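Quick note —
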Amino acid sequence: MNNTKIKIGTRGSPLALAQANDVKARLLKSHQDLGDDNIEIIVIKTSGDRILDRHLMTAGGKGLFTKEIEEALIKGDIDCAVHSSKDMPTTLPPGLVLSTFLPREDIRDAFISVQSETLNGLPQNAVLGTASLRRRALALKMRPDLKVVTFRGNVQTRLKKLNAGEAQGTFLAVAGLNRLGMAETVTEYLPLDTFPPAPAQGAVTIEIRDNDQSIRDRLTPLHCTKTAMEVAAERSFLKTLDGSCRTPIAGYARLDGDKLELYACLLSLNGQEVYEAKDKTIATLEAAETLGEELGQKIRASAGEDFFKTLKEQIAAEFE
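Predicted structure written out below.
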């Protein structure tokens, strides 16, 4: 047996551990010379896991879920890191790269409620719990009467808050529920045409040191080119619009044969202003990134800089 030890870094939530264990299982299946003892999963607590009393926007944004893990990767304490792609900042620390994407799960959002079978069926002025500005904006676009409160925490924590009556409905990614074996929790699958997902939703990625060819080679059999191309377009769009936790942005790409189509969307905080764009390109990684950038620039021009200024002021007034 190979004496090599592969150390996989991950957050400690049940979903993060399920994803890391999935990567471990795929590595074992792909490499006969690796045994269970050759792969170690190392849990790293991130700032985002510790800060639960306020919105991510006021604490530092998406990087809060990756900072400590990436520091361990850079130092060599771990060999690779498993992330939910939608948690990843669009700019990585120097020397790190997203080398691998697993086959993508369902990209839709799920509406969860113990009081209503559908989002539209919630009673007038019902309370909706979510920490996502995108989900908030899309819900208010459909139902301006709803009152939205901030829900933070992992899947289990948010479901506990819902069952405790802190809100009458909430949202979770279908992909996460599927990975946790909790598909029965879904009350309503929200359609893409009315409730588009966050860019990169449903995709698990693996981050490595760019110069670590040995780990890159180990991970190559796990890589899904289709997912990588779709996520590249979505993250490029996100980056062009300065996509962070401070902007209600939705979008998804679909690879169909030799064509890649991207739908991109920007919303106001209350969902009443919507800017959309859609286009196709040839199916290459470079073209996917270019498409995302072009649609981002198109939407930014349509919205105008006053839109972003107003959005920033509204968010500061409500959350800071």
